[in-house]
């Protein structure tokens, strides 16, 4: 039987290798062990980040199995037994998914006949495309490391449910193309690009001299970029550079563009400090956390990224409990959620939920204000609670 | 060395004892616990502890900070199991100590001492993993059903005899009153250094103007003046210890005594409420976000304490980042004893020491055994019940942090705390 206390064995897998690598370097020439090269160490670090996707898909499966979320596609990305997570993790997974769905759906339902585009960074085994397969006129792009895209494409190929869902969006089955290495998938509705995001950064930060061409990507369409726990693993200057290039050259500078990020915040209190050190001991470094440490810092960051027409941010706690103008989840839905499992750890839940946020920002460009219409009514500006938060700093 | 002492030694090294020994231990524990009432009488001095949650290494740290059994008289307010990796070792060690020194350690039931909760929050899986079958889990659950629901501490001194501890830093020392009389609250760190100290507010004739008194302003004729007679009348009201809190179905301690406790924790009713409820800044009663028990406000606590001649309710159940939290004009305190809860929360832990009534100059002898308990009890019967509120006991909190993971050569599985990735 799966033990819920040790849910992350998969993400630990890369760790041994990393430690081996560091030991090799630290005591270079000491003993017979081959010192590992810099590249090997970088690869080991990357592998850990790639494997955070296992964690996300396990959490999603656990929440689906218990009835928090309705997602018939989640099972296809889980091998073996259905993992079981603690109630606070299930609830957090639910709030994260529900909040981002709301923002995405508000965008997708604007003028259904107009074409739109979604780019999901570090999408991993995310199922959002399949869950929204019935929405017309959307081109969906997912970007991830080749090792992750390969896994996803193989899951799609072996799972009729996924394959049929995908093909139902296409004019003909022949429209679907998979690369020979099975790491890239292209079609008129859904694309998976095997790409290390860092190649999108500027050349001086290690990126490609010109941004890679992504098949079927239309730089003129209103485009929504999603980053669910993705950009936060990169150095802040690399993240900034990627966003700049996306907003100026991957997407035309005049096209409507928006970004939703889901990331940890508040690194300076004792929970935040413990989070940093716990994740660091697993080889996971939240590199942008201190730079974008508060809701306001997130809004400002979006504004500086050229998303000048509006920015909003809310932490998961206020998304879950918000009422009136701040309501994301109806009282009835909250009652349903609270009836699914006994959640004894109320204080811990609030603590955890305060340390994650959803932030969103947009520019309308030359368009007719699709994002302003979609998100103008979503409360996301500075709150009184944030003032108190700032006083801690 | 008796088998029991051997088992204690083995468990203290964080190694589980064989299933057959667990069965025997649980049998003995039940024989002992069945004799206890729903509300156990405990005499000060006593050290009151909150949730442990299987954080074995931190329980060892607690004993280092608070003293070993039987030198220190302990009262644990439940939630021994679940969440941490060593629920089994933690609970069995406490149970061994209970069987070995029944008068020096009191265990009461928390909401996690339940079949249903332990299958969700880890203890069941841990037993299965460590023994290959659910037998040990079953034995332990049978013991859970016999644990008392509360404890009543009597004979605690109103004033703390100041320790000879030094101050942790000059700043906190400088802010202290010049006299050391009538210390009501003292906070120490794990190195036995004073972090803070609060004197009891005095009658106006004897007031130290401008002293940093805690905001405890009882009605006239209560509090500091209530026990009158100066230093000799040093007897505080009793302290009720319970895991969660109060119940709308319970208005007196005697009603707790009438419950049939020997069962799985029910989903509702008085027994459930005692283990699940929380104090909150509300009037009267409110719905609990936990889905069991209730929220209760200051008016409920003050009335209950008055009716039952209590000076304080000590409870656990809620994570508090500072380890303890007094509420409602110091009429109720939450004590939390699991530092860095779930290896994630970054909180400190605390234990609460109540010292013995001042009949022997306030020094609480940490002797083995049972000496003087009977006399103390008689003292309780004579207790002056004329004051509206009994004066609160002097309270010494010892605050401590999580033990280092690889401490003392005990096995320590590297914890993996869950985050959203």
Please provide a written account of the structure.
Chain B: Its EC number is 3.1.3.16. Chain B: This is Phosphoprotein phosphatase PP4 catalytic subunit. Chain B: Keywords: Hydrolase. Chain B: It is an enzyme of class 3 (hydrolase). Chain A: Its EC number is 2.1.1.233. Chain A: Keywords: Methyltransferase, Transferase. The complex is a heterodimer of chains A (393) and B (421). By secondary structure, chain A is an alpha/beta fold. Chain A has 2 domains: 1-85, no CATH class; 86-391, Vaccinia Virus protein VP39 (Rossmann fold, 3-Layer(aba) Sandwich). Chain A has helices at residues 9-26, 38-65, 87-108, 128-131, 146-158, 160-167, 236-250, 270-280, 295-304, 316-321, 331-340, 346-354, 370-375, 384-391, and strands at residues 116-121, 138-144, 177-178, 185-186, 190-194, 223-228, 257-264, 310-315, 356-363. In chain A, a hairpin with a 6-residue loop joins β3 (177-178) and β4. In chain A, α1 (9-26) packs antiparallel against α2, α2 (38-65) crosses α3 (87-108) and α5 (146-158) crosses α6 (160-167). The radius of gyration of chain A is 21 Å and the shape is globular. Residues 1-34 of chain A have low confidence and may be disordered. Chain B has 421 residues and is an alpha/beta fold. Chain B has a single domain, classed as Metallo-dependent phosphatases (Purple Acid Phosphatase, chain A, domain 2), CATH 3.60.21.10. Helices cover 27% and strands 17% of the residues of chain B. Chain B is built from 12 helices and 16 strands. Chain B has a 7-stranded mixed sheet, covered by helices on one side. Chain B has a 6-stranded mixed sheet with strand order 1-5-8-12-14-13. The radius of gyration of chain B is 21 Å and the shape is globular. The termini of chain B are far apart. The interface between A and B is large, with 49 and 37 residues.
